[in-house]
Write a structure and sequence with these properties.
By secondary structure, the protein is mainly alpha-helical. The protein is 71% helix and 3% strand.
Length: 337
């Protein structure tokens, strides 16, 4: 199969490829609601109990008030996402003059292929992963991508960013629910770090054989998660009893496992858009490299709507990319199959 055949097969028409479909929107909202509502349940119970302890006339008013505060703050973040003070929160910065030239040239090629207006998006350098979702109008990339990647590979990374937005991320709603649950997430994260559970687990795992290390890591992760969840479960037990408290805390973890196939489908669809735009081999090449960040977010705490940040193994994604390339090649040249 010649490179010309691959190139033609990879590019069936950018406008059609990059158009957000109804299925994309529905899938995004289903995943968001199924991930967000269970994760918000624990925080709602705790706020309700706090309202009762403070003698609030209507205890349910406290979670409603907190939700409105989170919605207001999220709106402020999104409306002012490109202001200097907000960029510091997101850990973003404008490209330097040298970076701007390289980034703009690559982005304009991607936008042209996708049939979108390049000027309707802004380009930013991501200094660190603060685990925030930025508005769809902002395209971000790591400085390592500009320094290490070839032009076509950089275009593949930007195409992946565009494909995430084409999918429909319900970005504003994600941020609202992440803010809503942030007290519980911070407490559990502080316990995880303060007790040294991560360091202890990593130290022991390094001293074990590979197979034993994987088994130990899984077991230690479960143990750590149960341990840091005890304060939240104890507080909820005072309010609703032990059995409901355990259920409220476990549901987000169970939903995270149950929704994994759907989330993987979202990620596969994102990679498929990149392949259909003509960047399949380049994206596969980026996924094989270790000197640049992969075009995928770091997975988050399940209580923080983490299902929108999947982390499928690069080898699995590369296999799917190859399958899509083969599919397009057979479609373009059926006589050779």
């Amino acid at each position: 199969m010649t490179s010309e055949v691959i190139a033609k097969a990879n590019y069936p028409g950018g406008t059609a490829v990059a158009r957000r479909s109804t299925a994309d929107r529905v899938r995004a909202w289903i995943v968001l609601l199924l991930a967000a509502l269970p994760s918000a349940g624990l925080m709602t119970v705790l706020l309700y109990g706090l309202g009762r302890a403070l003698g609030v006339g209507v205890p349910g008013a406290l979670p409603v008030a907190w939700f409105l505060v989170c919605g207001f703050w999220s709106a402020v973040c999104f409306r002012g996402a490109e202001r200097r003070w907000m960029l510091r929160v997101f850990r973003l910065r404008p490209p330097t003059s040298d970076e701007q030239g390289v980034l703009t040239a690559a982005w304009e090629k991607v936008a042209h292929k996708a049939g979108v207006t390049a000027a309707s998006y802004t380009l930013w350098i991501q200094e660190a992963n603060r685990r925030f979702v930025v508005p769809d109008r902002m395209i971000t990339t790591q400085p390592e991508s500009l320094q290490q990647l070839a032009p076509r590979e950089l275009e593949a990374v930007l195409a992946h960013q565009l494909a995430q937005r084409v999918q429909g991320r319900a970005a504003f709603s994600q941020l609202v629910f992440r803010h809503y649950n942030v007290p519980v997430v911070w407490i559990e994260r502080a316990l995880l770090s303060g007790l040294g559970l991560i360091v202890v687990g990593e130290t022991i795992a390094r001293r074990l054989p590979a197979r034993s290390s994987r088994v130990f890591t899984v077991g230690w992760t479960v143990f750590s998660r149960v341990l840091v969840a005890c304060p939240a479960v104890a507080a909820a037990t005072v309010i609703v009893g032990l059995a409901p408290a355990l259920l409220v805390r476990l549901i987000p973890e169970i939903v995270a496992l149950a929704l994994r196939p759907m989330v993987n489908r979202v990620e596969y669809r994102t990679d498929q858009i990149v392949v259909d735009l003509g960047y399949g081999p380049e994206l596969g090449g980026v996924l094989q490299r270790e000197d640049v960040p992969h075009p995928v977010q770091t997975p988050l705490n399940p209580l923080s709507v983490s299902l929108f940040a999947p982390k499928t193994a690069p080898s699995t994604r590369i296999r799917r990319i190859r399958d899509r390339l083969d599919e397009l090649a057979r479609r373009w040249n059926p006589a050779s199959s």
